[in-house]
């Protein structure tokens, strides 16, 4: 497996474009297009929030129908959530406009929206953006990057990655882009992720590989505990690598799954580390668990604790907050067996052993916790299972951003 340059245009046959349609933002791009020269098998995972945005309902219907797709249209600034029949109608109009501009089947057009909830899309501006992108799309890595930038809202940087693997004598590439900074607590992930591949792969294998992998990637991140109305991950495969078809649970499937995991984990960690107002990526590893589920519950509880996140923001080794978060997680463990350490590029330091503080240097702990990437490792000494969750520190910046988000 090799990391290669680019994002959604790295795989064969995929093109991208962006446009500044003025949907909400001014002076920047706010629409993106992903286009495939050949129709794609699709897979998707979506928010578990009962309040689902119109694009989520639309995309889920497209994915479940089995119809092939050639285009994804995404806008930022307005989420098209809580917009009723009118909002869902705009999904239909978007698909129809894409059909006209790109020559693709409207029933297979996928859509994505992110931004303010409750506002209706300015559909005429959106249609103008589609026409502009249809004229400017190409397969360059630069266009892939511009698409990744166009879908940002409060993100401070764009997020993209691509990897290649060998399947038989063919090179298969997977590329992806994502956005997410606030309202991040996926359960399926406002986060959006779009992944392209030129692999020949069965529809069953494509959906299985995505559904299984999000449990250890996007569903293990949290910024603020809010599960969005728009959380969506879409995976498109156009088959242009011309490899032998990848089927579920084969050796080739496992190889593809490993590559997809790298893409998803990279994007998930970038989302977590770019949390609104954040200054650090906070990684939590729970080891020595008796079951994977126990480890996941404990890790997620720690990474979601506001008191723990503020301690990380203050570079304070307040380990009691971590043990407390483990205690109310719902997972059973013996607190008098827990070892806890902090780690970063500044070093590693053990804070507690068997549930009690050890003699450690507060100055060294502060140095370790002052780095842009910080990890907490909790060993509960019950077994061999482990899990990792990712989040960020909680700062005044989060309030500053969200107190006036609509304006």
Automatic annotation (TrEMBL):
UniProt name for this protein: Arginine biosynthesis bifunctional protein ArgJ
Keywords: Acyltransferase, Amino-acid biosynthesis, Arginine biosynthesis, Autocatalytic cleavage, Cytoplasm, Multifunctional enzyme, Transferase
Gene3D superfamilies assigned: ArgJ beta chain, C-terminal domain, L-amino peptidase D-ALA esterase/amidase
Annotated positions binding substrate: 153, 179, 190, 276, 402, 407
Any one biological process term the GO annotation gives: ornithine biosynthetic process
Role according to the record: Catalyzes two activities which are involved in the cyclic version of arginine biosynthesis: the synthesis of N-acetylglutamate from glutamate and acetyl-CoA as the acetyl donor, and of ornithine by transacetylation between N(2)-acetylornithine and glutamate.
Pathway membership: Amino-acid biosynthesis; L-arginine biosynthesis; N(2)-acetyl-L-ornithine from L-glutamate: step 1/4; Amino-acid biosynthesis; L-arginine biosynthesis; L-ornithine and N-acetyl-L-glutamate from L-glutamate and N(2)-acetyl-L-ornithine (cyclic): step 1/1
HAMAP family per UniProt: ArgJ
Enzyme active site: 190
């Amino acid at each position: 497996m090799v990391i290669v340059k680019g994002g959604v245009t790295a795989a064969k046959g995929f093109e991208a474009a962006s446009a500044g349609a003025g949907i909400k933002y001014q002076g920047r791009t706010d629409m993106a297009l992903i286009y495939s020269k050949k129709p794609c098998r699709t897979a998707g995972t979506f928010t578990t929030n009962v309040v689902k945005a119109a694009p989520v309902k639309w995309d889920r219907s497209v994915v479940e129908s089995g119809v092939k797709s050639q285009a994804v249209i995404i806008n930022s600034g307005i989420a098209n959530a809580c917009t009723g029949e009118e909002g869902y109608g705009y999904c239909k109009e978007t698909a129809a406009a894409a059909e006209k501009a790109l020559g693709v089947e409207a029933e297979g057009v996928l859509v994505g929206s992110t931004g303010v909830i409750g506002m209706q899309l300015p559909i005429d501006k959106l249609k103008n953006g589609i026409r502009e992108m249809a004229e400017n799309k190409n397969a360059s890595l630069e266009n892939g990057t511009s698409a990744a930038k166009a879908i940002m809202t409060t993100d401070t940087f764009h997020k993209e990655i691509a990897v290649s693997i060998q399947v038989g004598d063919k090179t298969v590439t997977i590329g992806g882009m994502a956005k997410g900074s606030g309202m991040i607590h996926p359960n399926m992930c406002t986060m959006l992720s779009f992944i392209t591949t030129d692999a020949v792969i069965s529809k069953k294998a494509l959906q299985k590989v995505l559904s299984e992998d999000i449990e250890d990637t996007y569903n293990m991140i949290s910024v603020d505990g809010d599960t969005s109305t728009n959380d969506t991950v879409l995976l498109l495969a156009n088959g242009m690598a011309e490899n032998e078809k990848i089927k579920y649970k084969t050796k080739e499937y496992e190889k593809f799954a490993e590559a997809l995991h790298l893409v998803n984990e990279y994007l998930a960690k970038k989302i977590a580390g770019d949390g609104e107002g954040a200054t650090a990526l906070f990684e939590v590893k729970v080891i020595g668990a008796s079951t994977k589920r126990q480890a996941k519950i404990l890790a997620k509880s720690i990474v979601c604790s506001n008191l723990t996140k503020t301690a990380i923001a203050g570079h304070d080794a307040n380990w009691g907050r971590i043990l407390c978060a483990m205690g109310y997680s719902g997972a059973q463990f013996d607190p008098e067996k827990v070892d806890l350490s902090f780690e970063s590029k500044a070093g590693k330091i053990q804070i507690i052993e068997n549930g009690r503080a050890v003699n450690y240097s507060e100055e060294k702990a502060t140095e370790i916790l002052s780095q842009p990437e910080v990890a907490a490792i909790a060993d509960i000494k019950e077994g061999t299972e482990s899990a990792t969750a990712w989040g960020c520190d909680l700062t005044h910046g989060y309030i500053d951003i969200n107190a006036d988000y609509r304006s």
